[in-house]
Structures
1.
Amino acid sequence: MNDEQLRAALAPDDTIAPLDPARVIAGARRRRVRGRVAAAAASAAVAGVVAVTVVAGLPRADVPQPAGPGPAVPVQPSIRTPVRTPSVRPTPPPSATPTFPARRTVRPTSVPTSSTPPGPRGDRTTPLRQATPSTPPTRTPD
Amino acid sequence: MTATGSRDDDFTAFVLARSARLVHFARVLCGDAGLAEDLVQTALEKAYLRWDRIEMADPFAYVRQAVVNQHLSWVRRRPWRERPSGDTAELELLLEADADPSGGVHRRVAVGAALATLSRRERAVVVLRYLEDLTERETAAVLGVAIGTVKSANARALDKLRAAPELSGVGERA
């Protein structure tokens, strides 16, 4: 079979009847109605989603707003998880011989007395009386 | 006469004059008589909705293009749709073949069976080239592919068709 015979074999015969135009037109009108309904439903769905989004995004008047951050609460470790014994920070050696050698406290260069007036506000050159750990910490690893 | 009435009259005349040819085209394209009618019906419905725009151009080419597009998309959806168990039109042709002295019906059956071995794109190329007598460029435009794709698909299709004993000379000039 050559090209021409293939064309002849594919050629239309007269056995096929034409379609009914009224049926085609009715189907087209149904298709148009379906298309409009689908478009309207899609538009309504989009409008609904937009409306919900806008309403959800507005601040609500009946809900009190937080006044601000509350007082800071020190965080306590809830579980005992020491991994090592905290080291004692060495105290600076006093420049003068301490009056009470048994107590390892930070002393100023001049031995302060209780009558020593405090320095000016913010002056940190004079060390304050501060308790230093005189005994090693009692919490040890388990 | 109203514009809608005139429009309907024009469309009705077109359907009566060309739908049989379109159904035959769709039948060769998809190999299924029932599916072919569905394809043409759907394509004509879409054409009716745009009739004002396509009437001035080439309505037959528009509907043929719609049939091809519809066929390719329906084939992709085919696994989720119903599957035909067989084509009775082919069986009717076989019964007619006994009373056909020229062998034309035998040839039609052989061509139909050979076309069934092609892929959908190869089949579309063969149908557009040999049934519709389109050029390679026009076929490429209808299918929305490059001309090289049409050429290679056509060559592969002819190789497959030549494998059938009745179609051994396909691709040679008469």
2.
Amino acid sequence: MAAISVRIPTLLAQVGDGRTVIAVEADSVSGALEALFSALPQLRVHIFDETGGVRPHVALFHQGRSVRDAADLATPLVAGDVVTVLQAVSGG
Amino acid sequence: MVTIGVGTEKGAFFLRSGAGSAWDLEGPAHRGWRVTTFGRSPSGDYLLGAGSNWFGASIHRSKDLEAWEQVVDGPAWPEGGGRALKNIWTIAAAGDVLFAGVDDAGLFRSDDDGITWRGVESFNEHETRPGWSPGAGGLAAHRILIDPADPSRMWVAVSAVGVFRTTDGAATWTRRDEGIDTTVPADEAPLVGYCVHRIVADPSDADRIWRQDHSGVYRTRDGGDHWEKIEHGLPAGFGFPIVRDAASGALFVVPQESDEQRMPVNGEFRVYRSSDDGDSWHQSGTGLPRGKIYAGVLRDAMDVDGVGGVYLGTTAGTVHVTRDGGETWAGLPHVFPRINSIAVLDR
């Protein structure tokens, strides 16, 4: 398992524990999210919706590349990687 | 001391009555989240519904209105079922049971003080469900009335569907909209399509219910079996909130000019009061702004404290208060984001 960081936006940090960067150990993007939910289970409903996929207006990046699609969630991680959860630019 | 929750598009604020007419302001909590409603759990914890166009909706709880904790096992539609939880619109307690009304329209209950929630299948899969369709504000179960004398009797309002009643503790539900004008042309009364905006009951006689509907203001004396329109003296029948001051029995509405305009008639922001159960309506007191105002009051944005206090918040973010049953109104000096909900949390 690689030691990586998950960055989350301020809105989610508010309903989490205040941290915007959470250190977890994971081998894939989906594994990183599961590790995030293990630490902060309340965040699951804010990132995934009832379709089982990432919410339409949530963006996920790994090392600067969008990884929100199901296939990309399997992207492997190495130590020091950063997975970023973003509030997508939806609006004017 | 009275504590008022102000739920806005960008967080929750709290007003506490101080000396004289002063109000202390606290918050915002859930800064940046759309706060849609407030409630109290059977044990006394404060509850609120918060949502976001990006991150969905959830219930949060607090013992002091400062430290909040999200309910992890909150209301949720099954994965892959085609429904999405968009907003928590109302939270109501019936003894030791909590109910929540949500969009997509549905009813959820908690039997453990709001820790875990499950869907009320008898309601959520009601035989009329295939015909349910949303109003402008969504397809929302937004109001729950519970008979204080018999909590097995409840009424749930759904836009744009109608009012459902149970008399057997939520085992079965029947729609109760006879006498209500539908919002769509129909040769005969359709099964659904009644756009109820708000209902309020007499706590001493739960069968007496008043209703601000899309199509006007109504009352029933028999728990919803029959409704009659009561608009004498109102400049318009359209509006969203309706409340009742338990001390005086007075009713309050905020009329708007038609469903197409949705603004105060002629830009005159007025609250109307009825002191005769809705037989007639008159402008409520003095002290509301005299300048032109084209803001409205949403369905959950007016509440009472039971002893003559009426509190309302507008879509323009202003809050107006009367503490004497609607004789005199005063505006607070603050301007909030668009106000979704006003709730008396302590009194």
